[in-house]
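Fold it.
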Amino acid sequence: MFQTEYCPNRTALIEGEEYLFFAGTAYLGMPACEEFKNYVWEGITKYGVNYGTSRTSTLGLAIYEQGEKQIAEYMNCEAVLTLSSGYLAGQLAIHWLTSQYPDYQVLYSPNTHPAVKMPTDKTLPLADNFEKWTEKMIENISQSSNEGFIVVTDSVASLKGKTHNFDWVKNLPINKKIWLFIDDSHGIGVIGKHGKGVLTLLPEIPKNVELIVLASFGKALGMPTGCIFTCKEVIESMKDVGFFRGASPTLPAYLYAFGKSAHLYQQKHADLMENCQYFVEKLVENKVNHLFTYEANYPIFYVLEHKLHEFLLARKILIPSFAYPNKDSPLITRIVLNALHSKADLDKTIEEIVAFAQKISKN
């Protein structure tokens, strides 16, 4: 593992040397966006560097309700609740669901993130493949004697850059009570209309299905904030849970910055989509696309030849390569684009990928 003294953007400074940086989850490049940083600074000037008290304390900051209203309006959602991280928001949501509906069976999709699982829950998915899982999950619900289910999944298999299709929601049995809980942490800011996430991609939800969407804004949107999107009644109920009442809230300066940044998010999303399309075109044009699995409008390119990591590193291009989820797990090697990468950055990387392909073809 390398260390740096500065937040990376399109490049990273390592031991005084500049590397092209194709890692992380700051897909829109917000941490390095000067206009966004200025908005955060304005928020800090007004609200201070932190607000270290419970949202249920005697005195509250108006920016929390204002900010949540702005987020809900931006996402075209009925209501939203903010917490200090996506992990905390995920734990609040799954604890609320399982405590409110203790007799409901919980069905997790493959590779569900720990943030949306009960810590003691060792339930295995019904299948390792997402498409196969949806079939078995629907079959399980149809044939089960249980009256209710909590279906937990994500919008994106982020490690391999695969977005999930949700047409199967229309096939959920209508004679059961179902909560659909979607983790959109790697989708928000990237997928959907103007990058507004899975909420813009879902088909019409059956009347017997209730929806909760979780999103970490700490990735594409550049905010240390977790959000829960659902109906107002559920949001009000969640406010009584200890995960919300006992925790310090998200930083108010970032809620202030969000209210100023709708144009930035849409601009950066357009830049990111342009980079994704350009990179795919160059991979195909240079006949090296077979080295990756990817989707045209998603910024993660899963590398099939893990030695590409060392090859690029020697040429001052840093891509992630690590064992996941455990230290003994197989390597995950990827190229991660962000909105800040220039065409020159992408061209340089493509050039080196071509050289790598030529090298391994000779061996």
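The chain has ten helices and 15 strands.
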